[in-house]
């Protein structure tokens, strides 16, 4: 009764508060009731971080990026396709013209060498007298790579020998206190000029004698470039031992390159007679033999002409 009286007496002092209704967490879009902010990094968030579906309630829709709008444009797609076709045609045209003037595919064959081949080839250039089989090996009418056949011509040794010859020439001029960039450039240009003149003269001679040969221009450059190996040896020996060492080593290299060129080119220029195994005494074959000997004899002369002034 006492408690009832207290409740009755306290009734006028009570204020009526609005009823509190608990809102489910899912309606707030928050996975944790104690979380202060929505996690918009999750694709499963359904609150403010979720992308709103387009509706008629005035909410803005997600606008596409400029790149996507450009790619979706039919005109731009046609322009890109046309540009790609033009680029492909241009690349094909460039490749054809490059292969016409600079046979890149063929050049790869002449640089297919390894260390073992280089060592054997250098030995063959200095001692060609011990070699017996000079035939070039073929596989399905295609010559095998130089690293598999010591008789195959390559461009690696001539190119490296030419560069080394220029460096050795600069060293020789420097030891004589005659070095100058102009003189070294003259040495390199004269060596290239003589090589070009040799190639042109041989091609013209082959045309005049109507020689049916598989000897190509790159083959000629390779064979004619082997003489730089002997020139390097002669100049180095001249720097170490003077004129006597120069003449001894250069004389040996001259005879070696002469024998090497005779035994190599006779199978190229005299291919028909070599295939039959008997010498043909026709006038045409005699001209081919004279041409082979002339090319071989020109190598020692050029070796001396391009090196004698480097040793004093």
TrEMBL record:
GO BP field: endoplasmic reticulum to Golgi vesicle-mediated transport; protein transport
UniProt keyword annotation of NADP present: no
Subcellular location: Endoplasmic reticulum membrane; Golgi apparatus membrane
Record region (Disordered): 1-61
GO annotations of cellular component type: COPII-coated ER to Golgi transport vesicle; endoplasmic reticulum membrane; endoplasmic reticulum-Golgi intermediate compartment; Golgi membrane
Listed transmembrane segments: 155-174, 186-208, 220-240, 246-266, 287-306
Presence of the UniProt keyword Lipoprotein in the record: no
Principal subcellular localisation of the protein: endoplasmic reticulum
Membrane topology annotation: Multi-pass membrane protein
InterPro entries: Yif1_fam
Signal peptide: none
Biased composition (Basic residues): 13-24
Keywords: Endoplasmic reticulum, Golgi apparatus, Membrane, Protein transport, Transmembrane, Transmembrane helix, Transport
Reported function: Has a role in transport between endoplasmic reticulum and Golgi.
Family: Belongs to the YIF1 family.
Protein name: Protein YIF1
Organism expressing this protein natively: Phyllostomus discolor (pale spear-nosed bat)
Lineage: Eukaryota, Metazoa, Chordata, Craniata, Vertebrata
Name of encoding gene: YIF1B
């Amino acid at each position: 009764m006492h408690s009832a009286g207290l409740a009755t007496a306290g009734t006028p002092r009570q204020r009526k508060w609005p009823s509190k209704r608990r809102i489910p967490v899912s309606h707030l879009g928050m996975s944790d009731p104690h979380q202060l902010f929505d996690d918009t990094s999750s694709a499963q968030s359904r609150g403010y971080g979720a992308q709103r579906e387009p509706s008629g309630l005035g909410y803005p829709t997600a606008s596409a990026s400029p790149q996507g709008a450009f790619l979706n444009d039919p005109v731009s797609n046609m322009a890109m396709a046309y540009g790609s076709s033009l680029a492909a045609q241009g690349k094909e045209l460039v490749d054809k013209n490059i292969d016409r003037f600079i046979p890149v595919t063929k050049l790869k064959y002449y640089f297919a060498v390894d260390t073992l081949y280089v060592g054997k080839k250098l030995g063959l250039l200095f001692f060609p007298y011990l070699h017996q089989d000079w035939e070039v090996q073929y596989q399905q009418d295609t010559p095998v790579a130089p690293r598999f056949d010591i008789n195959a011509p390559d461009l690696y040794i001539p190119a490296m020998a030419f560069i080394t010859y220029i460096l050795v020439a600069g060293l020789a001029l420097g030891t004589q206190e005659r070095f100058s960039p102009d003189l070294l450039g003259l040495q390199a240009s004269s060596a290239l000029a003589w090589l070009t003149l040799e190639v042109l003269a041989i091609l013209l001679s082959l045309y005049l004698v109507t020689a049916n040969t598989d000897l190509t221009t790159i083959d000629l450059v390779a064979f004619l470039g082997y003489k730089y190996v002997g020139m390097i040896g002669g100049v180095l020996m001249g720097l170490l031992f003077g004129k006597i060492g120069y003449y001894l080593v250069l004389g040996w290299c001259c005879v070696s390159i002469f024998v090497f060129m005779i035994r190599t080119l006779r199978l190229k220029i005299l291919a028909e007679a070599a295939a039959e195994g008997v010498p043909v005494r026709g006038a045409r074959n005699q001209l081919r033999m004279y041409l082979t000997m002339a090319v071989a004899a020109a190598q020692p002369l050029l070796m001396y002409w391009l090196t004698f002034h480097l040793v004093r």
